[in-house]
Design a protein that fits this description.
This protein folds into 2 domains: 51 residues, N-terminal domain of TfIIb (Single Sheet), CATH 2.20.25; 65 residues, no CATH class. The protein is 39% helix and 23% strand. The chain contains 4 helices and 6 strands. It has a 6-stranded antiparallel β-sheet, with helices on one face. The longest helix is centred in the last third of the chain and has 20 residues. The structure holds zinc ion. Zinc ion binds next to loops.
Length: 132
């Protein structure tokens, strides 16, 4: 199975697999080891990745899966990417990123005002570089 990655809030790669997110714990001999991000629930489900392919079958999770959380994360990534790549006003960036997104998923992404702040923060760095 091939891997699909999503960026975490802190900009790290998370591995998205069957409605769950995994974060990398270690890397050895060309293999990387990923642990379910719900580890605070003491979930021990983990994945092994070799050459961009998932080579293990994860243990069952001890919590319900949340594909909508994964999708919500993707929407947030889309907003951040558009913030970097375009000069559109924040409200346009947000409305274009959430077009066609289901209601359940919208409920899981931050409030519009928070998203706008994120966009300003991302662009703020860029302005300093351009105009200094
Ligand atoms: Zn889990």
């Amino acid at each position: 199975m091939s891997c699909e990655y999503v960026l975490s809030q802190k900009g790290h790669n998370l591995l998205s697999f069957q409605g769950c997110l995994f974060s990398k714990t270690s890397e050895k001999n060309g293999r990387s080891y990923w642990l379910c991000t719900m580890k605070k629930n003491r979930c021990r489900s983990s994945l092994v990745v070799e050459e961009g392919q998932i080579v293990s079958t994860p243990k069952e999770h001890n919590h319900p899966l949340s594909p909508s959380l994964v999708k919500a994360r993707k929407v947030q990534n889309k907003v951040k990417e558009a913030a970097r790549l375009t000069r559109d006003p924040p409200s346009t960036v947000i409305s274009e990123s959430i077009t066609g997104v289901e209601e359940v998923i919208l409920a899981k992404i931050p409030h519009q005002e928070n998203l706008k702040q994120t966009i300003r923060r991302i662009r703020g760095c860029k302005f300093i570089i351009i105009y200094s």
